[in-house]
Amino acid sequence: xxxxxxxxxxxxxxxxxxxxxxxxxxxxxxxxxxxxxxxxxxxxxxxxxxxxxxxxxxxxxxxxxxxxxxxxxxxxxxxxxxxxxxxxxxxxxxxxxxxxxxxxxxxxxxxxxxxxxxxxxxxxxxxxxxxxxxxxxxxxxxxxxxxxxxxxxxxxxxxxxxxxxxxxxxxxxxxxxxxxxxxxxxxxxxxxxxxxxxxxxxxxxxxxxxxxxxxxxxxxxxxxxxxxxxxxxxxxxxxxxxxxxxxxxxxxxxxxxxxxxxxxxxxxxxxxxxxxxxxxxxxxxxxxxxxxxxxxxxxxxxxxxxxxxxxxxxxxxxxxxxxxxxxxxxxxxxxxxxxxxxxxxxxxxxxxxxxxxxxxxxxxxxxxxxxxxxxxxxxxxxxxxxxxxxxxxxxxxxxxxxxxxxxxxxxxxxxxxxxxxxxxxxxxxxxxxxxxxxxxxxxxxxxxxxxxxxxxxxxxxxxxxxxxxxxxxxxxxxxxxx
Length: 482
Fold this sequence. Notes:
The protein is α/β, with parallel strands linked by helices and 482 residues long.
């Protein structure tokens, strides 16, 4: 292993985290290293693409960098979920005309301008007349006039060209199907065997989808629900209670909802997730033009900045880093935008304007007090000693002005919390036997990580006795030694 002093310093001053998707453009260990150094905190593996063997190589490369830099890194396994697609056409493509009838059915015969096969009987079982069907990412809109167990008669409301195997979206319909396909179940087994930190669930429609996934995961990873369907938004309160984190998946959400509704919904999800103490990621098309350009549009820069202003835990790059020509530049730009937002006078005003009423528990009272004490005494950091991560999540919910050092003896906790707003995870395998030893370790880490200087103060929260999840009951102000 390279000596610590010989490695490039990785010291984040940014509070919102960066998630980058690995793909063909970023599979080599040298490129993954470059992304980490440029600012990535969390790597996403998209199981809609690539093989399990390719993902295993990426996991090995990430864990090697983690050991080299002694920096906990989170890995998200993003499951594909069900993909609803029409069949093929006899001539490969047709043009649908507004006002004309169009039929979808289970007959595998190649389609025409009048009909097309749809090999998903579960769709027909869930449809009712009057509902909307969207094809080709919403470019074509159909209205259901009649339907049965194996067909749907529709009227074309918005026409256009349509070709083989285009995707189908059903914004009005809650489908009687699981969020996990056989492929997803196999990928989930692979992911937990390789000790990924987060499982992202696609196609979540209802609370039962999360319950089913949690039963399969069995505590071996934490769950991110991807909010990409209107039915999931309807169950937002219940889903927040059941999940560990949230992703605002604006691509599919923008297809199934009116575009003008998505920005307000994004803000609502961020606020509700923060109040629930659940990390929230804003994803999809954040710096889309940087797939082929070394600089973003001003609108894209504003989009990233808006998510940071709103207090999102993380902002995510998808195709920009997976297949883009400028992956490192995209990460660097996202890092620059986030750090610039933090220097803006409005940043704290907006963050502090969102109320996060603490629960009436000793743990919440201590954590809320820690934020106030840190501000009053001009502390350099808040240090949370935690095994489960609950103490640190409470501190992050408060959105303090200073970094949150998560001191934990659990490596999986340190990795998971790399996703959380303002958190600097510090895994220490050495057993800390008493509170005084924990305080000494906290002071040493704050100084060695460049967060606090000698004679500065830090605020420490912990639970006694050690190792009892959720038992935060101690607050201490400590001086960092010379």
